[in-house]
Amino acid sequence: MAGKARYKRRRENKAGILWASVVVLILVTVVSIKSVGLMKKVHEYQEKEAAITSQIESEQLRSEEIAEFEKYTQTRKYIEDTARDKLGLVYPGEIIFKNDSK
Fold this sequence. Notes:
Largest sheet: none
Number of strands: 0
Low-confidence stretches: none
Radius of gyration: 40 Å
Shape: rod-shaped
Number of helices: 2
Helix content: over 70%
C-alpha cells in the first residue's frame, strides 16, 4: 500500500506543478499583452508632450513679439509712421512722391 500512496502523491504533485505552470503562463501572457498596450499609451503621451512643448515655445516667442511691439507702439517713430500711413500727415515743407502705376 505504501507504493500506491507514493505513486498517488507523485501524480498529484505532477498535476499541481502542471496547473501552477499553466497559471503562471496565463499570467505572463496577460502581463505581456497589457504591457504592449501601456507602451502604446506611453508613446502617444510622449507625442502629445512634444506637441504641447512646441506649442508652449511658439507662444513664448509670440509673447516676446507682443512685448516688443508694445514697446514700439510707445515710441515717437510709431506715432509718426501711423500718422503718415493712416492719416497722410507730413512735416511742413516735406515732399511726398507717389507711384501712379496701373
